[in-house]
Design a protein that fits this description.
Helix content is about 30%, strand content about 15%. By secondary structure, the protein is α/β, with parallel strands linked by helices.
Length: about 375
């Protein structure tokens, strides 16, 4: 049963969701929603019953002490509400309904119906699902983010790609299709994470997702320390990659492919978007931080490129594109064995990314297993 006691009447609400698991390479998507919840001090008003959707041998509950009293936190999906201003941090207000949880282990259709029930009761105008995938993209370049929808009209109106993906899917793809059948406008934003450095966290990818969300919704998001974290992350990876000539050569090849593919994107429209974001960042009410994905600072450890099994601090020689086969629940097809989660490589999809690693018009690399 859906109970929404204590939730105020919302203003032009949009639901923003992310789920830990296979649709969350580098934890980039779930970290982005967690950032929104933290910066805007969201108040949790509902949580799905963990007993209905999760296998506790896969996603185990945790025990903690609260003033000497033992308590248990169950893996679940929680909803909170935050109120934000317009692109200048003032004027017309709107509300975001944040959905953050773990990809369910079972009963996916019921899970999506419950999320849609909340959306209906709250009068949600659109659902935006964030995801992250593995791709052949260099860590030294801006993170590619693609916007995908199954609604042809929405794709035209918001300048999005219409999904053409076919293959195994995850909860992001299932939820988006459930929205389509229910008549709820839905968009998926996918960030491409370098497959050779896929261990979480990846603040640079989270930052890219938030930048794209700003553009989509016309809001300004306070970044806090996220920009600094992104620069520190890139420094850590730069340092580790520089220690091995093989890795450095591979990264250079990805850079060349990416730069060649991005030449047509250096359009007046793209430049205008970046300039508008820069102006928003100059507004003192927009919150601290600058939406810069590059730059270097000190202070990151060497865990990003470490193979936890062998202790190596670099990936093995990258396998060729032709030798990769799509595998459910096995992320080694996309690169080195240094990932902590299962995230299928985008290049395995029929409409996957190009040689530069940009996500294609698809639901992303998804699997029915979490």
């Amino acid at each position: 049963m859906i109970e929404l006691e204590g939730v105020p009447e919302l203003i032009d609400p949009v639901m923003v969701a992310a789920f830990e698991g296979w649709n969350d390479a580098g934890d980039a998507a779930s970290a982005a929603v967690a950032h929104l919840d933290r910066e805007w001090k969201g108040e949790v008003f509902a949580a799905l019953d963990a007993e209905d959707y999760y296998d506790f041998q896969v996603n185990r509950p945790t025990v903690f002490l609260d003033n000497g009293v033992r308590k248990i936190t169950w893996p679940t999906t929680r909803l909170s509400v935050v109120r934000v201003g317009d692109v200048n941090g003032k004027g017309r207000k709107r509300d975001l309904v944040l959905v953050r949880g773990i990809e369910p282990s079972m009963r996916w259709r019921s899970f999506c119906n419950e999320i849609l029930g909340f959306a209906h009761e709250l009068g949600v105008e659109m659902l935006v699902v964030l995801g992250s995938l593995l791709g052949d993209t260099p860590h030294t370049r801006p993170v590619p983010v693609s916007g995908v929808t199954s609604d042809a009209d929405l794709a035209t109106r918001l300048d999005l790609e219409e999904s053409r993906y076919e293959g195994p899917t995850g909860i992001v793809g299932i939820l988006q299709e459930a929205c389509t059948h229910a008549g709820v406008p839905a968009v998926s934003l996918w960030a491409a994470v370098p497959h050779y450095v896929s261990q979480p966290p990846n603040p640079k990818a989270s930052l890219a997702l938030l930048n794209r969300l700003e553009d989509l919704l016309g809001i300004s998001i306070p970044l806090g320390e996220l920009s600094e974290d992104a620069r520190a992350w890139q420094l850590g990876v730069d340092q580790l990659a520089a220690e091995d000539s093989e890795v450095a050569e591979y990264v250079q090849s990805l850079e060349e492919a990416r730069d060649t593919a991005d030449l047509p994107e250096a359009s007046g429209e793209a430049i205008a978007r970046e300039f508008e974001r820069y102006l928003r960042r100059r507004d003192p009410q927009s919150g601290p931080g600058v939406a810069t994905e590059g730059g270097l600072t000190e202070g990151r450890d060497s865990s990003y490129l470490r193979d936890t099994a062998s202790g190596r601090t670099r990936p093995p020689r990258p396998v060729s594109q032709e030798s990769r086969e799509p595998r459910t629940g096995d992320d080694t097809a996309a690169g080195p064995k240094d990932t902590a989660q299962d995230h299928g490589p985008a290049e395995d999809a029929p409409d996957g990314p190009d040689s530069a690693g940009s996500p294609g018009p698809e639901d992303g690399p998804e699997s029915g297993e979490s």
